[in-house]
Amino acid sequence: MTEIKISTDKEYTVTIGNGAASFAGKIISAATGSKMALLLSDTTVAPLYGRAVAQSLRSAGIKVYTFTLPSGEQIKNKAMLFDVIDFMFNRDFCRDDLLVTLGGGTVSDLGGLAASLYMRGIKLFHVPTTLLAMVDASVGGKTAIDLPYGKNMVGTFYQPDGVLIDPQFLVSLPQKQVSCGYAEVIKCACLDSKKMFLSLQSGDYDIADVIEECIKIKQDYIEKDEKDVGSRRLLNLGHTYAHALESYSGYRVSHGFAVAIGIANAYRYATQLGKCESKYYTRVCMLLKKFQLPVCSRISGEALYLEALHDKKRRGNTTALVLPSKIGKCSICNADDKMLREFFMTEDKDERV
Ligand SMILES: NC(=O)c1ccc[n+]([C@@H]2O[C@H](COP(=O)([O-])OP(=O)(O)OC[C@H]3O[C@@H](n4cnc5c(N)ncnc54)[C@H](O)[C@@H]3O)[C@@H](O)[C@H]2O)c1
Ligand SMILES: [Zn+2]
């Protein structure tokens, strides 16, 4: 098993290994010292893995309650958040107790927010079961729910006490969700690793190594800029576009698909600006398509631009856009509203799907 130590305001370990889930109780007990846990999962994941993880926690001397959410982005709402908080209050959870998330990024975002708010913060441990949550959502401490007027509108920075990643969970993950995870993997490659980009192109890689590499890339950003005011914003590559698209579509477009379209859009726009050679745009689109990801949306750029005016990352009339100059190199560009509109209006008629 591989361990990555993350040094933020809280220090914690990310453990990665095939079969690591069978040691969940031992690892979680050692990381938190808690005697009582809420195991938070969703209706797809709980029947697959809930019982084994709960049993492992019990074997480590932890009393376990389970709470099963519906599945999908719609769980990231106010009512669900307070259902989880009320559930803990009604079972006398106190500050030493623990919330364990077992699921994708929606479960870890909602569970992380509940853990950070309840009694001003209890212990939190993530056991991600989607590729997207393994490479991205479970590490870095961002938590959130969505509001009708915008994605991730209410949230906190709250680092977990540990993360356990078992790539074997991925055997049951539907192909579309695997693709969604690769959108964030490709984002990491575009930001910082030409080497990983080439491995993804060739297909010659081990998924556990890719997960480790993505976490190490993210680690570097979050350790330098935990609260997302400086260089961490580079991790937002593809996300200004993605959040507008997700929100506008009423979350019918998944996060991973939206990110893929957003990455392609960033390369397309950087090419139009002359910041990036068109060959990189072509290569990125080819890689996204190789992982069955879309590179264009049917929704009008004007509508998405208007949606992006509500993006929580805006400062006054400025939006920080992440624009690439090649594969493995991006920078932040402060865009006024005219530029932001242009960014959403880029179009490649050949790619429109
Ligand atoms: N906090 C962060 O830093 C961060 C980073 C990236 C994304 N996110 C958030 O993560 C969310 C997307 O996460 P996601 O893509 O994991 O979505 P998700 O949590 O909705 O999971 C996708 C689907 O896969 C199912 N599933 C999960 N694990 C499974 C398994 N092993 N086998 C079979 N089915 C399984 C789930 O039940 C769900 O239906 C978005 O809300 C996004 O905003 C947060
Ligand atoms: Zn993302």
Question: Would you give an account of this structure?
Answer:
The structure is a single chain. The chain has 353 residues and is an alpha/beta fold. It has two domains: 2-172, Rossmann fold, CATH 3.40.50.1970; 178-345, Dehydroquinate synthase-like - alpha domain (Dehydroquinate synthase-like, alpha domain, Up-down Bundle). It contains 13 helices and eleven strands. The strands form three sheets. The chain has a seven-stranded mixed beta sheet, sandwiched between helices. The longest helix is centred in the C-terminal third of the chain and has 19 residues, at 255-273. The protein is globular, with a radius of gyration of 20 Å. It starts with a strand and ends in an 8-residue tail after the last helix. The relative contact order is 0.11. The chain binds nicotinamide-adenine-dinucleotide and zinc ion (ZN). Zinc ion binds at residues 136, 184, 239, 255, 259.
Entry keywords:
about 350 residues, binds nicotinamide-adenine-dinucleotide, Dehydroquinate synthase-like, alpha domain, 2 domains, Rossmann fold, alpha/beta, globular, 13 helices, 7-stranded mixed sheet, binds zinc ion
| Strand fraction | 15-25%
SSE order:
EEHEHEHEHEHEEEHHHHHHHEEH
Percent helix: 40-55%
- Strands in their spatial order, largest beta sheet: 1-2-9-6-5-3-4
Taking the alpha carbons of the first and last residues, their distance comes to 42 Å
> Class by helix and strand content?
alpha/beta
Q: What molecules are bound to this protein?
A: nicotinamide-adenine-dinucleotide, zinc ion
| Overall pLDDT | 96
Q: Compute the gyration radius: what is it?
A: 20 Å
Domain unit count:
2
Q: Return the CATH architecture of the largest domain.
A: 3-Layer(aba) Sandwich
> Which spans have pLDDT < 50 for at least 5 consecutive residues?
none
Top CATH class of the largest domain: Alpha Beta
Helical stretch tally: 13
Coarse morphology: globular
CATH fold field value of the largest domain: Rossmann fold
Q: Please state the oligomeric state of the protein chains shown.
A: single chain
Number of strands: 11
